[in-house]
Known about the structure:
Blueprint: H1 9-20, H2 22-34, H3 37-43, H4 51-58, H5 62-74, E1 78-81, E2 84-87, H6 89-96, H7 98-111, H8 118-124, H9 148-173, E3 180-184, H10 190-198, E4 203-208, H11 210-223, E5 229-233, E6 247-253, H12 261-274, E7 275-285, H13 294-311, H14 320-329, E8 332-341, E9 345-352
Helix pairs in contact: 2-5, 7-9, 12-14
Amino acid sequence: MFNKETKTALQAKEAALWLAFAPIAFQATRALRDMGILTAVSKSGSKGITIEEIMEQTNMNRYAVRVLLEAGLGMELVIVNDKKYTLTKTGYFILHDELTRINMDFTQDICYKGMYHLEESLKEGKPAGLKELGPWDTIYPGLSLLPPSVGKSWFDFDHYYSDLATPAALDIVFENKPKKLLDIGGNTGKWALACTAKDPEVEVTIFDLPGQAGLAQKTMKDAGVENRVHFHIANILDTSIPFPKGFDAIWMSQFLDCFSEAEIESILSRCREALNDDGTVYILEPFWNRQQFKSAAFCLQQTSLYFTAMANGNSQMYHTDDFFQCIENAGLKIVEENNQMGLNYTLLKCKKA
Length: 353
């Protein structure tokens, strides 16, 4: 997918110029979407709509409507005939596609300002852009403290992809009916709750930071399963705090990409010790080199830079070559790999080597 040149010289220069103005194009696209212009154009259907009609529907002045529409022409979000604007296919997806909306809101609310500090982050190995959101060393302690609209953008992004993989993953994890399951990075408790619904006998332990664990504790109590869901509240990077032990299964969904390779090896080594002899570690991750579509790989490659500048400064969405080496170094072996989970996820089933 990424092993040969695909553009002519003219196409390559055009792509380079698009990238040169990409931040401006992004903000113009957001304005067209959020200020109601694309909605007005969409509602007009194939007959199209004039600037005057858009002004009336959006309560915007002529100048504002005109400059945004002209930018939209260049970005191929709209086309114009006889001074009437209609929506293109790209404009349709910007306006109506949930995945595109979630990615755009995440980029705007979580990443945009912080990306100004990307070079600093790369040089220092720290998320230098995080100061645009809050005074934390990593983003994770601050997730429960973000303004509601900003927090929503993060959790929508975090959950959308993994949620699509949950039903099939549950079937695989519960094939052998684990009695005790450790959910590392349990977040809001959605997976733990799904496990208690899947098997009325399973006991789940959520391992997470205090802020996220607090959200999950409320979720479990509201669902009436607090007697079967326990909590191990700690920073997983604090190696002085031992993992709880005696688990038939350990679950990590879109979790290990939040850590450097050395940290992943440390976490997996401790997972190995927390397992029963025949226990299984299940790892659900999106690997950029396992994607069917180039656009999906592109999204994951760019998301890596969110980790660089905003999240922790040292992790990424991994290539399998690098990730699988971490698993081997931790004394585990992959016994099964399923690349058909949800939209773009891989489920790895690992045992003690």
